[in-house]
Every structure is written in structure tokens, then in C-alpha cells.
């Protein structure tokens, strides 16, 4: 999740990179994605992969996947995730993600794991998140 | 539904985050962070044991600081402590910290793995999931070693909770991807396949990713998944939009699972079982039908989800490539998308249609959309969409529409984005060649390419046009005329000068009858560009000039004048100077007949696959150009080279390999160019014609005892040239590996081994593993002679073609003891004095042998000089004899050597005597030299 100004709100890595490489990748993704406008596709080639992204207010949600992966499935995967965040944080805004960054990681892990889609049902994910919320 | 409020649970954290956000400057932020770090450090070091809550809060703060981009060098132990907490929130923060900040501290890894182990066996699904997520997120080798056998058990155990199964499946996938050797197939594998039948759709969604990955690697073991996947898909596709409740997304039943099922099926060929296949075809038809139904919602989410499935289904249809009906329907559906208002859909339709174009069943259907695609190329705003349109035009091109497509691509090139120009140029060049019916069209197209996008025309492209013009005599006159006209432009691209120079040098005579393009006019036109060109182009032009002298004797004086001027004959560039000197000499001393032979018109090139295609494939990565296309191009290339009417090519074709000039010059000019050069070198070469190809690997070796440069080895595939220089006890050898084929060599590797390691030290850097067709790569060996030696180093070369059998070749490298000679001049008296000093029997080695080569004085002298010694005149009382002296430099010592060679012309015999300060050297030198004369 990248802010328009270049702040990274959250990054999850499913391949091994060292810290410098991670920073470089984030900057590159930011550079590639933020120059595109609404008339452009939501897909952009990136190194030997492609980025599927969608902008919500000041935040870009980007997923980097194999070139053969299904673009629209990942695009809707992003939206599904955003709808869960919205429900969980009750009209989510960027600040919620800042103050509750450690919870956002939990949401990601519930829905995406090892770089794959783990669970798609919003009902099931939210039920699980609320259960976890109730634990001490 | 209760909302989560700001930083609930950890007030201190929320305050800290607010503080950071309120910092006005970077400095203030750093100050605040340092204060916090000091505070946390003191808490962690304090005597008072911290409670779980505080520990969690501080670890979480550290994590926040790290995520802001600051280094964190403590707190790991506290985080590990949190792992053993019984409270979920504390455990969660502990695991999060570990996942984000893990390092390979072995001590900690052991503790972490221990905590994970406890959680995995806790039977508490929440804790188990946390532990599994940690493994999946870290995915290190150490974790794979510890848990790769445990996780399959959890995954297939009957009493495992659904959510744990989901996590276990993907956790295992991660370990399989990072350490496939540690994840052993076993009886669990068959049970994993049956997860496709699981009641819980979330379990199926997670498990199918694992199954797909495993199927790709072990298709046979998992093939039962095909029928299971088909029946699962069938149930989803035929369900009503509300049947699946939780898994319905904007009225589309289980879109992600459907996509994953369709993707899994793409790991296999069409099902053999008729019933299964029938059911699957029914599913695919249903999916295509649904695309035509009115949408159940206007939301983009609805259409995206529906189309995600549709595109995946089309991928499967293309993968099977066996159902003409489905292929054509898919094509029609994509055709509708080409004009859709959603850019995403237009893009994906272009991309998907590209693969449809390669199927014989749908190629024609794709072609009907040509106007739409051309329009997309012209009007799309997003460059990536235009790129896809260009790809599709390329894919749908055939003989019927080539002229139209090539023309459109050419006109697009004038305004094309810089990022895609090079690729466009390659595509135009390939299409023009592949579908050329009349070659004047081909020549026009390529010259237009150079005119419009000269900077992006790679060497392969202009080499190719020259090859084709050389091989097709029906187009040579036209090519000469066209290129002559193109050169008239005041500013023309250097690539145009290259093509012009080459073609006029070969075929200028075909247009010389017209006074407007008389020989002198042609020459002056070319020469007017000379001074603006780079060195390789100038070198090419010089060769064109010498060819002019042969073609048009009337230009001789003018051209000799040019060659003779200081800027040529004393050019600071050694290649240009050498050419000027040699060409000038050649034109003055050689008779017309010799000149005509040397500068004969280039013979046709051997048939070969277009190197442009190879280049495009490289650009696009493997798999981008389909196999059928490759075969096509081979066939077409055959036609183009006119193989049928000219017959197979004969030995008269100079191999582009006997190319000493290329080896000698630092920057080899184009392959075609150096061909011309090699003929010339043969004339001037004092060591006779270039070495024939070596059948036995030692052959090359012996030829290099008295020389340092040349072709060491050559067969149908590979040519190895060497160039070497020695000084004192050090040497440097340049090896040039030339790929003679048009196919890439993969896994190319070389190793040098020295039989006597203590005698020679040879250092080299590894070479690039890929050698493109027609390309040459270079390797440098640094050689140090430690002490005298007999055995030469061995060079082993391995590579494969078409991913086929490994070629393996071992050659003796021509590093011989005499390479380390320093010549020593001495007088007659000195010579005989030393000769007497070296009088111990073992210091002398002698051989009497029959002459194998010419006994001509000059040849012998050249060889003895090549040996590295000084050839001493007026020393031996018998003027027929030769004596030489030199010192061999090794790291440890200097070895003085004297040599005497006594030819007996009548008997065609030699007596060779060596005396050296070291007996082994005498013997070795004697052995080596006895085979040289």
C-alpha cells in the first residue's frame, strides 16, 4: 500500500530480498504506478513481473504477480481486501492503517498467504477477525 | 459491527505514533525516535521484569520505528519471549516482529523454531495459524528443515480445523517453493488432492494453489486432480448466483476459486475420459454463454469478476487448442472486448487474442479484427495497450496482410514511444523478410526502417538485408539503385552508410552504366559520408573502396590517393591504418587477376535462421515466440536464401570463421564485413593459409608452438580463436568463442585445468552462460609460469543447444614452455663458449627427423623467430645451419637455451640439437620443435 506522496503504508514480501533491494523495489513501483492516470489500465509490466494496482483516494494498493497470472482476479482481490478493511475499521481511512498497522498485517495474512489467495469470503474473514479482536 | 478505534489496546503506542506524525521536520522525528529508543532500551535493561503488556507495547513501538526506515538492533529477544505468551495479542506482536525483522541469528532461530513447534502442537487453532503464518512469511531454509515433514501431517489430519488447513496448505506451498528438496512426496499427496472435494470453499481455494504448484512439478502423481477439478468447477458454474452465499462476489459465484480451477486444468492435456471432457466443455460453453447475458449488476466488480473467469476459460481453451468451435467463440468474444469502453478489457483482449492468432483454428477469425487493432495502435492513450496492439498485429500477420501490417507498423514507428521502438524495428524486419514475395519490397522496407528509426536498427537487421541481397541475384541491381538514392539524402543514418558501402562495393557495377551513378559518382557519394562515421563504418568503407578498385579500374588513382593520405595511412586507429596500408599495397602490387580473385563477389551465405528472430526471442524472453513461428521462419529463411536454385553451398563459401582480422581487431566489425577481410589476410599472412579446422584436439595445439594468434579449433558449431602475448614469465591469452550457428548456446561454460598445478598458474573469469547465434564472446586467461613444464593446460568447454544434449569438448591450450622465451643476442664466440659450458650429456637433447614441411629458408626463419628465441646470424660456420639463443623466464629461475638446426636439403632431413641449463627443458623443447619442421 503506497501513499501518493511516496509513504509506504504497508509492504508484504513473498520472496527474499534484502532491505536495500526492498527499498529500491518500492521506489520503482511507486515511480511506475503514480504516473499513470485513470484512463490507463490497472496493469503495468514491471521487471519480469507485472503489477496489478488500484487507487483508493490517496492510497495505491499494488500487487506484483507473475506475467501469466489472471489480472482481473487480482484486481478484484485487491477490492475484496479493501472492502474487508472498510468493514473492519468501519469506513477505513489512511489513519486507521497507520495507527493499527499491526492489525492490518493480520488482515493480509487472513486473505493472502505465501503470495496466494487464502480466503475470499468477506463474511468468513470478518468473523475470524472479530473473534481475534475479542481475544486478550 | 464494532469498529476498531484508534490504537485501541495500546495507548502508549498511539501516543507515540501521534508524536511522530506531529513532528515538523525529519530532525524532530529522529530526535523523538532516539528518545523512545533510549526509553525502550532502559526498560528492557531495567531490573524490574516487564509484564507481557509492556513488552508487547515496546516491541510494537520498535517495529513501528523499523517500518519508518530506521535500524533496530535490539528487542529481538523480547519479541521471542512474546512468542511463548499465552495471550493472543502478545503472541501476535511477537510473531509479527519476527516475520518482519527476522535475521539469521542462529541462536534466535533455534528459540523461534522451538516456540513455533509448541504452537503447532498446541491444538489451539488460533496459535497454530499464527505459527503457520510465521513460517509462510519467513520461509527460510532453517524453518523448512524444521517443519517440512510436520506440516503435511497437519494439513491432512482428520481433526484439523478448516482455517488451520488453509494456512497449512499455503505454508507448505511456500516451503516447497523455497526448498523443494525438503518437502517429500508421500502418502499425504493423494489426500491433498482430495481437498478439492472439501466442503469448505476456503480450504479448496487455499489447497488448490498448493496442488497446482505440485502438479506442475509432478504431473503424474497428481493427475487424479483433473476429474475432481472438473466436477468442482461444474458445480460452481451451474450454481445460481446466490447458491454459494459467502463465496458469491457481486453476483458471481466463487470467481477466484473458478479461476484457480481453470488454471489447474492448464497443467494437463484435455481429459481423456469422454465424460469428464464432455462435462468440462459444457462448463466452458456455459462460461462463454454467461458473457453474453445481461449483467446482473452495473458495478465494475461484477463484470471484472465475471470476466476474470472468462479470460481464464479462454486461456484453457487456447491451451487445449483442440476445440475449433470454442476457439472461434472465444475469438468473437474477445473481438467484442476490443471496442469496449474499459481500457482494461481492451488490453486483455489484445493480449489474449495474440495467443489465439497462433492457433490454426482461430487464426482466420483473429484476422477479421485487423482494422480495429490498427486503430488501437494509432489511438490508444496507454502505451502498454499500443504495445499489445503491435504484438497482435505481428501475431496475426501472414502473406495475405503483410503489406498492410508492415506499412502500418512503419508509419506508427515515426511516432512510436522510444521504449518500444527497437522491438518494433525487429518485428517489421522479421515480417518483411518472412512474407516478402518480391524482394524489392523487402529492400524498400528495410531501407525505410533505417531511414525512420536508424538508431534502433540493430546490427542483426542490417547484416540480414545484406545476406539476403547477396543471396538473391534478382534484387541486387534494385538494391544498389535504391541504396544509392537513399544515400543522396543530406543527413542519412550511419546504418544506411554501412548498407550502402557494402552493397555498392559488391554490386555498384550494376548501376554504373547510368552516368548519374557512374563509379566516381558512387565513390564520391560514399566518401562524402566517410568523415562523419564511426571507426567500424570507416573500416567497412575502406573495404568497399578496395572493391571499387577491382570493379572499376578507372577509380584506382582517386582511391589510392585517398588511401595514401595521412589521415588514412597514419590513422591513430590501428584497424583503419592497417586496412589503408594493406589495401594500398594490395592495389599497387597485385596483378588484375590476383585482385579479381581476392576481391571476388561474396559467395552466397549459408542458409541460416534469421538472427533477427533470435534477437527478438531474446528480448521477449523464452516462450514469447511460439514454436510454430520458429519452424515457419526456418522454412522461410530457406526459401529466401534461394537454397533450391543455388544448391547447397559448397566449400568455396568462406566460413565466417577463418577470420583472423576479426580476432586481431579489438572491435570486430560485422560478420559480413570481416569475411572480406579474411581473404585479404590470407594473402598477406606469412604463415600460409588460415588454419584448417582441427579434427583432433591436439592438432591446433602444435600449430601454435611458433605462433601466438589464430584459430585453435573449429567445427560445425563452434570456433575458438586465440590471441596471446607473453612477457617475462607472464602471459595473457584471449580466447574468442564464436557461435557459428544461428541458435543460442546455453549453459556455456569453460574450465581451465593445469595438469601440473605447481608449474603453471592460469587464472580466468567465468564466461557468460549464453552465446547468441552468430555471436562471439571473449575470455581472458592470465598465465603465470612458475617453473618449467611439459604438460599444457586443458580447456574444457561445455554448452547445449536447443536445451539438448550437452556438448563437451576438451582442448589442449597452446601454452608451451617456449612462450616464455626472451631472445638473447650474442656473438659467435659467446655462443660457442656457452655451448661448451652446457656440455653435460643430460643438458643436451638431439633429434634427427624427416622434414614434414617446406624447407624454404624464409619459412624456417619465420618459425624460429616465432619460437621466441633470437635467430643468430653469422654464428654457425655452415651458413645452411641455424642457431638460436634465448632465456626462458619462470617465476623461480631463468633457463638459458641454445638451439642448432641443421637442415639437409638433399635427404629432406633435419638434425636438431638443444642445450639448456635444465635437462627437462632441453627434452621438452626438442620434442615440441621436432614436430614443427
From TrEMBL, chain A:
Pfam families, sorted: Clat_adaptor_s (PF01217)
Location of the AP complex mu/sigma subunit domain: 4-135
InterPro entries, alphabetized: AP_complex_ssu, AP_mu_sigma_su, APS2, Clathrin_sm-chain_CS, Longin-like_dom_sf
GO cellular component: AP-2 adaptor complex
Primary location recorded for the protein, binned into one broad class: membrane
GO biological process: clathrin-dependent endocytosis; intracellular protein transport
Membrane topology of this protein: Peripheral membrane protein
GO MF terms held by the record: clathrin adaptor activity
Family: Belongs to the adaptor complexes small subunit family.
Name assigned to this protein: AP complex subunit sigma
Species of the source: Maylandia zebra (zebra mbuna)
UniProtKB/TrEMBL annotation, chain B:
SMART domains assigned to the protein according to its UniProt record, in alphabetical order: Alpha_adaptinC2
Pfam family of the protein (one): Alpha_adaptin_C
BP GO annotations: clathrin-dependent endocytosis; intracellular protein transport
Keyword terms of this UniProt record: Cell membrane, Coated pit, Endocytosis, Membrane, Protein transport, Transport
SUPFAM superfamilies named in the record: ARM repeat, Clathrin adaptor appendage domain, Subdomain of clathrin and coatomer appendage domain
GO molecular function terms noted in the UniProt entry: clathrin adaptor activity
Principal location listed in the UniProt entry: membrane
Protein name (record): AP-2 complex subunit alpha
Native source organism of the sequence: Maylandia zebra (zebra mbuna)
Lineage start: Eukaryota, Metazoa, Chordata, Craniata, Vertebrata
Amino acid at each position: 500500500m503506497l501513499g501518493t506522496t511516496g509513504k509506504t503504508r504497508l509492504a508484504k514480501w513473498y520472496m527474499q530480498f534484502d532491505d536495500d533491494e526492498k527499498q529500491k523495489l518500492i521506489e520503482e513501483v511507486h515511480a511506475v504506478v503514480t504516473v499513470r492516470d485513470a484512463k490507463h489500465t490497472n496493469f503495468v509490466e514491471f521487471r519480469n513481473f507485472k503489477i496489478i494496482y488500484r487507487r483508493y483516494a490517496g492510497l495505491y494498493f499494488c500487487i506484483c504477480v507473475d506475467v501469466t497470472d489472471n489480472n482481473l482476479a487480482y484486481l478484484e482481490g485487491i477490492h475484496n481486501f479493501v472492502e474487508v478493511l472498510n468493514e473492519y475499521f468501519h469506513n477505513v481511512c489512511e489513519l486507521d492503517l497507520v495507527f493499527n498497522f499491526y492489525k492490518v498485517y493480520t488482515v493480509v495474512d487472513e486473505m493472502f498467504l505465501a503470495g496466494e489467495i487464502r480466503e475470499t469470503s468477506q463474511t468468513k474473514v470478518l468473523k475470524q477477525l472479530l473473534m481475534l479482536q475479542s481475544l486478550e | 459491527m464494532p469498529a476498531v478505534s484508534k490504537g485501541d489496546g495500546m495507548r502508549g503506542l498511539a501516543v507515540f505514533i501521534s508524536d511522530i506524525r506531529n513532528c515538523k521536520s525529519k530532525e524532530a522525528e529522529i530526535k523523538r525516535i532516539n528518545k523512545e529508543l533510549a526509553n525502550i532500551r532502559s526498560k528492557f535493561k531495567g531490573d524490574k521484569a516487564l509484564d507481557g503488556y509492556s513488552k508487547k507495547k515496546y516491541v510494537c513501538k520498535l517495529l513501528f520505528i523499523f517500518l519508518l526506515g530506521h535500524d533496530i538492533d535490539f528487542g529481538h529477544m523480547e519479541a521471542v519471549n512474546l512468542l511463548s505468551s499465552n495471550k493472543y495479542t502478545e503472541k501476535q506482536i511477537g510473531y509479527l516482529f519476527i516475520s518482519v525483522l527476522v535475521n539469521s541469528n542462529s541462536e534466535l532461530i533455534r528459540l523461534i523454531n522451538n516456540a513455533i513447534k509448541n504452537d503447532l502442537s498446541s491444538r489451539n487453532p488460533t496459535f497454530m495459524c499464527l505459527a503457520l503464518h510465521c513460517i509462510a512469511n519467513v520461509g527460510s531454509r532453517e524453518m523448512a528443515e524444521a517443519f517440512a515433514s510436520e506440516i503435511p501431517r497437519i494439513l491432512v489430519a482428520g481433526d484439523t480445523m478448516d482455517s488451520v488447513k488453509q494456512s497449512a496448505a499455503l505454508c507448505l506451498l511456500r516451503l516447497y517453493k523455497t526448498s523443494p528438496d525438503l518437502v517429500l512426496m508421500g502418502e499425504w499427496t493423494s489426500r491433498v488432492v482430495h481437498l478439492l472435494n472439501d466442503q469448505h470453499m476456503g480450504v479448496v481455494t487455499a489447497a488448490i494453489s498448493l496442488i497446482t504448484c505440485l502438479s506442475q512439478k509432478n504431473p503424474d502423481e497428481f493427475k487424479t486432480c483433473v476429474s475432481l477439478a472438473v466436477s468442482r468447477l461444474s458445480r460452481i458454474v451451474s450454481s445460481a448466483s446466490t447458491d454459494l452465499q459467502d463465496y458469491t462476489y457481486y453476483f458471481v459465484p466463487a470467481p477466484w476459486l473458478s479461476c484457480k480451477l481453470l488454471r489447474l486444468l492448464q497443467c494437463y492435456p484435455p481429459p481423456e475420459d469422454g465424460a469428464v471432457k464432455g462435462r468440462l466443455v459444457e462448463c466452458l460453453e456455459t462460461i462463454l454463454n454467461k458473457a453474453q447475458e445481461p449483467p446482473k449488476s452495473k458495478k465494475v466488480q461484477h463484470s471484472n469478476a465475471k470476466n476474470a473467469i472468462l479470460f481464464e476459460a479462454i486461456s484453457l481453451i487456447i491451451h487445449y487448442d483442440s476445440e475449433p468451435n470454442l476457439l472461434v467463440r472465444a475469438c468473437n468474444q474477445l473481438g467484442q472486448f476490443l471496442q469496449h469502453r474499459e481500457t482494461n478489457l481492451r488490453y486483455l483482449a489484445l493480449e489474449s487474442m495474440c495467443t489465439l492468432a497462433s492457433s490454426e483454428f482461430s487464426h482466420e477469425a483473429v484476422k477479421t479484427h485487423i482494422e480495429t487493432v490498427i486503430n488501437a495502435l494509432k489511438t490508444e492513450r496507454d502505451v502498454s495497450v499500443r504495445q499489445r496492439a503491435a504484438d497482435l498485429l505481428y501475431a496475426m500477420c501472414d502473406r495475405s496482410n503483410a503489406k498492410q501490417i508492415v506499412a502500418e507498423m512503419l508509419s506508427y514507428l515515426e511516432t512510436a514511444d522510444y521504449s518500444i521502438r527497437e522491438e518494433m524495428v525487429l518485428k517489421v524486419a522479421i515480417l518483411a523478410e518472412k512474407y516478402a514475395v518480391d524482394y524489392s519490397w523487402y529492400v524498400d522496407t528495410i531501407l525505410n526502417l533505417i531511414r525512420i528509426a536508424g538508431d534502433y536498427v540493430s546490427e542483426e537487421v542490417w547484416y540480414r538485408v545484406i545476406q539476403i541481397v547477396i543471396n538473391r541475384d534478382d534484387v541486387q541491381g534494385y538494391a544498389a539503385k535504391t541504396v544509392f538514392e537513399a544515400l543522396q539524402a543530406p543527413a542519412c543514418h550511419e546504418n544506411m552508410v554501412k548498407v550502402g558501402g557494402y552493397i555498392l562495393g559488391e554490386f555498384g557495377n550494376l548501376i554504373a552504366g547510368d552516368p548519374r551513378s557512374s563509379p566516381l559518382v558512387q565513390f564520391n557519394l560514399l566518401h562524402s559520408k566517410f568523415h562523419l562515421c564511426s571507426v567500424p563504418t570507416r573500416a567497412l568503407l575502406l573495404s568497399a573502396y578496395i572493391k571499387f578498385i577491382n570493379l572499376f579500374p578507372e577509380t584506382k588513382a582517386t582511391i589510392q590517393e585517398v588511401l595514401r593520405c595521412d589521415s588514412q595511412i597514419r590513422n591513430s586507429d590501428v584497424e583503419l591504418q592497417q586496412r589503408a596500408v594493406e589495401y594500398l599495397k594490395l592495389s599497387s602490387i597485385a596483378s588484375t587477376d590476383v585482385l579479381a580473385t581476392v576481391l571476388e563477389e561474396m559467395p552466397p551465405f549459408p542458409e541460416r535462421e534469421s538472427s533477427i528472430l533470435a534477437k527478438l526471442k531474446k528480448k521477449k524472453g523464452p516462450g514469447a515466440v511460439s514454436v510454430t513461428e520458429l519452424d515457419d521462419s526456418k522454412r522461410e529463411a530457406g526459401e529466401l536464401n534461394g537454397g533450391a536454385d543455388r544448391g547447397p553451398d559448397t566449400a568455396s563459401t568462406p566460413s565466417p570463421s577463418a577470420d583472423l582480422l576479426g580476432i586481431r581487431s579489438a572491435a570486430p566489425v560485422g560478420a559480413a564485413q570481416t569475411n572480406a577481410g579474411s581473404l585479404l589476410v590470407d594473402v598477406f599472412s606469412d604463415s600460409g593459409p588460415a588454419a584448417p579446422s582441427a579434427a583432433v584436439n591436439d592438432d591446433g595445439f602444435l600449430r601454435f608452438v611458433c605462433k601466438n594468434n589464430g584459430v585453435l579449433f573449429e567445427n560445425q558449431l563452434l570456433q575458438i580463436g586465440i590471441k596471446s602475448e607473453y612477457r617475462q614469465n607472464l602471459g595473457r591469452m584471449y580466447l574468442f568463442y564464436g557461435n557459428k550457428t544461428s541458435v543460442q548456446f546455453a549453459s556455456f561454460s569453460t574450465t581451465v585445468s593445469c595438469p601440473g598445478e605447481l608449474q603453471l598458474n592460469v587464472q580466468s573469469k567465468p564466461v557468460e552462460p549464453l552465446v547468441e547465434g552468430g555471436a562471439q564472446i571473449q575470455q581472458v586467461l592470465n598465465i603465470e609460469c612458475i617453473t618449467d613444464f611439459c604438460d599444457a593446460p586443458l580447456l574444457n568447454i561445455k554448452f547445449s543447444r536447443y536445451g539438448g544434449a550437452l556438448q563437451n569438448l576438451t582442448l589442449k591450450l597452446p601454452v608451451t614452455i617456449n612462450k616464455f622465451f626472451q631472445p638473447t643476442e650474442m656473438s659467435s664466440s659467446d655462443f660457442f663458449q656457452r655451448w661448451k659450458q652446457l656440455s653435460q650429456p643430460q643438458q643436451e637433447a638431439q633429434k634427427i627427423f624427416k622434414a614434414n614441411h617446406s624447407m624454404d629458408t624464409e619459412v624456417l626463419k619465420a618459425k624460429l623467430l616465432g619460437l621466441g628465441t633470437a635467430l643468430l646470424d653469422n654464428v654457425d660456420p655452415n651458413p645452411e645451419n641455424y642457431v638460436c639463443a634465448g632465456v626462458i623466464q619462470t617465476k623461480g629461475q631463468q633457463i638459458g637455451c641454445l638451439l642448432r638446426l641443421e637442415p639437409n636439403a638433399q635427404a629432406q632431413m633435419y638434425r636438431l640439437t638443444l642445450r639448456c641449463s635444465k635437462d627437462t627443458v632441453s627434452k621438452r623443447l626438442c620434442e615440441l620443435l621436432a614436430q614443427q619442421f
